[in-house]
Amino acid sequence: MKKVKKSMFLLLASVVSLSALLAACSGGNNAEEPAEAPATGSETPAEQPAVDKPKEKVELEFWTHWGSTTRRPIIEKIVSDFNGSQDWITVKHVFLPYGEGWTKALAQIAAGNPPDVIIHEIAKVAQRADKNQVENLSPFLAKDDISGRFHENLFEAMKHNGDVYALPFNTDTRFLFYNKKMFAEAGLDPEKPPTTWAEMEEYAKKLDKIGADGKIERLGYHPLLAGGFELFMLNAGKGEAWVGVDGKVNVDTPEHVDALKWVMSWDERLGKENVETFKATFGSKTSEPLIAGKLAMKADVGTFWTQIRDFAANRDDFGVAPLPEYKEGAGHWSVGGGFSIEIPKGAKNPEASWEFLKFMTDYDAQKYWAQFNFDNVANKEVAGDADLMADPIYAFSVENLAVTKMTPAPVSAPDFATLLNPEIEAAIQGQQSPEDALAKAQKAIEDLVAQNQ
To answer: What whole-number distance in Å separates Cα of residue 67 and Cα of residue 94?
Structure first.
């Protein structure tokens, strides 16, 4: 396994200090503030605007949900760099809490007064395109083809009916974090994390600490406390989406039934009430369960490492590994999400907005975002940047993208999760069998697809 080394991406404390506004994102909630803007030295020069400049300066509004003391200074530094890179466009960053900006943007699109550029979730690009909520970028790409910048699977997720409606900005991947010190104390090799589900369960039992009164003091692992049912069900299904882009529903399969039973078995072994009582002790920062020593293993996005980096007493106690395989030889499949950058339908200055999209996905901006957020970015050349890859944990997160599948929500099944998740939750609560839960969800989603085709 890769030994955890001191991160090369510590943020110093003197660039910008802004109000702490928490934003949901793909994993990074650490409270550090970047200090000094690194020399970015563009290995790939930014393209020059491919449109005629207007006589008057253009002002753009750029909406994001990045308002934390970590991410807001970073995104605003990139915006400032863009504003200083040319003399005809000024971009103003507007922070709105996660989800709120998207709701407000829909209202303003309907009113004919949308923001000029917005960060949105990758999973529903095709749905927004189908509802005519976002500008078609294919005409811009025809004149200024930058499609080769991106990881292919991310760029494919930007398409609907063959046209491109957004550019990918960042992504994520999920893998296993574990406490090496606890492994050693339990007689497990700290350099040999579990490789299969069966081995993970075997390790977990050795790492569990149950008091004489039956109360849980520490757990080796629990999928519902540190990963979630969806991650393991999709892992068992080799990362294939619940609903394919062709509308094929992939819910009621033997692998998914088996995976749901496995997820439920942890509560059955430990006692559901005991697990819920234990979960209530969880917190954040130094009280986060893996960092606080209440869990020995956790599945999470790569940016979770920043929490270990910032709040753990000794980061060298922790290691990373691929998600264990459902069965030996099945594959260490993971799932990813992330965010796109797009031009809402009806934006007043789409040509200027396009110039900003190009800048945001070019080398310098993407490297700055990756370096200071410890985040996976969409630009594949930046993903292999030598400075970034010098950190072994970041390098591991990039390598794990090879087994990470995107699962965008198809147009034929908008909001299918509202049909799937309640059935699975009912099974977890003991209200129905896993077989019945997935059979009912399969039928309901198939009906939804039929209605929308």
So the answer is: 9
